[in-house]
Amino acid sequence: MKKIIYSISVFLFICPALVSGQKGVSNVNSGWKAGVSSAMVTPDKPMNMGGFGFRNKPSEGHRTDLYVKALAFEDAKGNRAVIVTFDLNGIFQPFSDQLRDRLHKKYNLSRSQIILNVSHTHSGPSHYTPRMDTTTVLGKRAKEYTDQLANHVIEIVGNALQTLQPVKIFSGNGVARFQVNRRNNIQAQLHLLSKFNGPNDDAVPVIKVQSASGKILAILFGYACHASMLKDYIISGDYPAYARMELEKLYPGTTSLFFQGAGGNQIGYPRNTVENTMQWGKTLAASVERVISEPMKELSPDLATTYDELNLDSDQEPPTKDELLKIAENKNNPDSIRIKARENLDKLERGETLIPTYPFPIQVWKVGELPLITMGGEPMVEYAIKLKLIFGQDAFVFGYSNDVMAYIGTPKTLTEGGYEGNSSPFRRFRGARWSQNIEPMIINGVLKLAKQAGVEMAPKKYSISGG
Predict the structure, then answer these.
(1) Cα–Cα dist 257/251, whole Å
(2) Which of 73, 182, 328, 416 has its CA 20 to 30 A from that of 271?
(3) How far is CA 114 from CA 62, 81, 365, 371, in A?
């Protein structure tokens, strides 16, 4: 990992009580406070890359630097929450759980108060998972990188909390249209089409954090589209990195943070060149700039955070010992699947059962009047569309948060099958896909959390049906 440079945005007139970072130490409780910090985490050595299974060698240098960034909020009552964004393809359960446990121990932040969101860049390093072989050079390097990454997150969250300052927070939504639904259009024929089939989510949600002096302290913005524009062996943050870079040129001294939306079936087009990638980054930044240039909705200093893990299951039977043995011995299968099949065989030999459900993370935050919803995995765009029908078009919907275990299909996707439809944690753990009840479980889970957070539903204008 390259030498880490920590960036902390600090208001010039911070009183001593504010920099302690402790709840309730300041008498200034009339509004929002926020703090932001970032660390550059570009690998300085070749690493295996995440995102594309065809890659057969480690990275060969970098095109943009990679970052982890933290934005901390505190409302008028001292309630706190932190959003951490990563230039990574995914974040998996063991790493996420350990990291959130450390944040709880050090800063007393519960899981409801923490969002870990990845940009889903397909040009970033693979982070360590327990199945990696750390006796190899690349496996050891992945473990070292991931351990350092976790330490940087702990550091920048602390920096963000220590530099909390009085701010105003605004929200708005822009528009960008470079994403294409890859399930409803044939990718190889896109260049022949004059019109693409949907559904899509064109929204560019934006939060502006403004200091008491009027300076823009931070910009949090998102989009629902795979960051898979580039397929080479050069490390980069893909189009989100170019969007952030453009915004930080437009607003010097501002920290920009990107979050990935419900883009499981969305890709950018045209793609596959650096020029296309830069173009879409600039397009996204232009949409954010337009939102910031116009009047935005000021959010009242009221924060509520909720969290739950839903026990999603499969509607297929787990594999037998004989089936697992065939998977483990088939040299045409990827090593990760063969290793997992062997692990499951060992479990069955010990008399244990294979996992019956998967703990799927969801969150609902109420940031002033803004509903902010997160889901784990790679949710299809239909989830954002339905949740916005329920909570209003201004609602923010994050995917790729806290645990990116698999695609999150709709009943239609699961019936059709295909790449996204057949993907689930059980594909590796049990050789099975998600159950058909996945969508109503998630929607109902979000509705339950929204009620706890005090988030109101939008006036009923549409029926919520289909899949």
Answers:
(1) 13
(2) 416
(3) 29, 6, 10, 15
Cα 333 to chain center, whole Å?
28
User: Average pLDDT over the chain, rounded to whole?
Assistant: 88
Of residues 136 and 379, more confidently modeled: 379
Return the bridge partners of 309, or none: 361
Q: Mind listing the pLDDT tens digit for each residue in 154-185? A: 999 999 999 999 999 999 999 999 999 998 88
